Amino acid sequence: MIDLYYAATPNGQKLRLFLEETGLAHRIVPVKLSAGEQFAPEFLAISPNNKIPAIVDHAPADGGAPVPVFESGAILLYLARKTGLLWPREERAQLEATQWLFWQMAGLGPMAGQAGHFRAHAPEAVPYAIERYTREAARLYGVLDRRLQGREFIAGDEFSIADIACYPWVLPHAGLGHDLAGTPDLQRWFERIGARPATQRAYAGVDDPYAKPANFTEAERRALFGQGAQG
C-alpha cells in the first residue's frame, strides 16, 4: 500500500496518473494547500520542503520500515524502478526517459508554473514577468514538439514516466497563452495521452489551475505561495 499525499496541482496529478495507469494499491491523503496543511509537522516529516506530492511506501523492496519519498520526479523514478512499470526495458531508453523527466522537473514545470502564476494568480499584473515566463514556456513547448516528431511517446516507442511527468504541464497550455495548433506533434501527443482511460480517471473533476484568474483570500495567498511557513 502506498499513501499518496495529494492535491490536484499539476505535480500532484503526475502521481494520480501513474497510479491510475499502473493500478498499484494506494490510499489518497488529501492535503489542503489553501489551509496551510502542508506546513503541519507530520507532513513536514514526510516532505521537508512542504510541497505535494509525497508518498509513504509501506512495502519497500528491502522489506524494511515504510519509506517516505518527496518530490514528484523522485517519486516517479522510485516507483518505476521498484515496479518496472512505465519504465523502459532497454538501458538506453531508460536514459532517455530519465533525461526527459529531469528536463520537465528543471524546465517545463518551473517555467510553466511561473507563467501560470503571473498570468492568473499574481495579485497585480507584472508585464515583464508575464512576457518572460510565457515566452519561455512557449519555447519549452517547442522543444517538446521537436522531440515528438516521428515518435509516439517522449522516450521513444513506450509510454513512460517521461510522458506522465510532462502531460500535467501541457494540459494548462491555453491558460499559459499557448495554442497547440502551432506545435502539431505536441498536439498529437497531447490528444493521445488525454484519450487514455487512466488519464480520464485521473482528471475527473479536476480543473485547470490557470484557466481563469484566481480569487484567493489573503490567508490563502500566504499559505499557497510560501508565506505561511515560519523560519
List descriptors.
231 residues, 9 helices, 4 strands, four-stranded mixed sheet, alpha+beta
Please provide a written account of the structure.
The chain has 231 residues and is of the alpha+beta class. It contains nine helices and four strands; from the N terminus they run E-H-E-H-E-E-H-H-H-H-H-H-H. The protein has helices at 10-22, 41-44, 72-83, 91-121, 127-147, 161-170, 184-194, 197-202, 218-224; strands at 2-6, 26-30, 54-57, 67-70. The chain has a four-stranded mixed sheet with strand order 2-1-3-4, covered by helices on one side. Helix 5 crosses helix 7 (184-194). The two termini are 34 Å apart.
The proportion of residues in beta strands is 5-15%
| Major β-sheet annotation | 4 strands, mixed
User: What strand order characterises the main sheet?
Assistant: 2-1-3-4
Q: What is the helix/strand order? A: EHEHEEHHHHHHH
Short synopsis of the structure:
This protein has 231 residues and is α+β, with helices and mostly antiparallel strands. The protein is built from 9 helices and 4 strands; from the N terminus they run βαβαββααααααα.
